[in-house]
Design brief:
heterodimer; A: flat; B: mainly alpha; about 10% strand
Amino acid sequence: MPLSGLSNQEQAYWSSIGNLTGNLLDELKKGGWLRNEAELAAPDTQSPWSNTQYLCEIQRTHGDCESNE
Amino acid sequence: MATAKAMNDAFQSKDVQLTSCLVELGVGFTQGNVGNMWAYDMFSVFIESTEMLKNHLLVVLRTNKKPFKPRMTLGELFSAIRTVCPHYGSQFTTEVNVGLRNAFSHGLYWIRNDRPDLYYTEELGRNAIVKPLSDILTVIAK
């Protein structure tokens, strides 16, 4: 995520959050809690997110993604 | 997020024009309540962001075995993360699962017209906690 436009204090905070998030994902991965690429390509059919199209649409609405339209 | 950024830019750089424009519409905006719109938008963005965080985590996590499951509330998900991540779980969830999140999610907050403060409570019946909205009003009053 670009940190431009933020104060030094804000940049330091968000940088620390980035590191914390990375450490959390590493811990989840070491514990075997993250899906691998094959699983993400063929998601759990029990999951409401098995079709990630909806998530992409939500992300376009709330996030910074550009629409494909 | 683009809308939220526009709202921030409008209030931070065009506050006088924006306030005058809205007040002159004569539909109920006043010098004292225009800033509330900005605050409500930021509260909404905060809640949406936490829910999006939950959604993204549920995509990448293996939800076919406990403690994770396909459908979880944010509180349940954070509790599960703390269980399986003893090193960083608590530190991570503490950053997101703040008292204000619960208040915003459940409408347990209010803004008084006579004071530039945000009031909220962690649940009905508990004492109100006060946070100043002075940063917003400082910008609005320029």
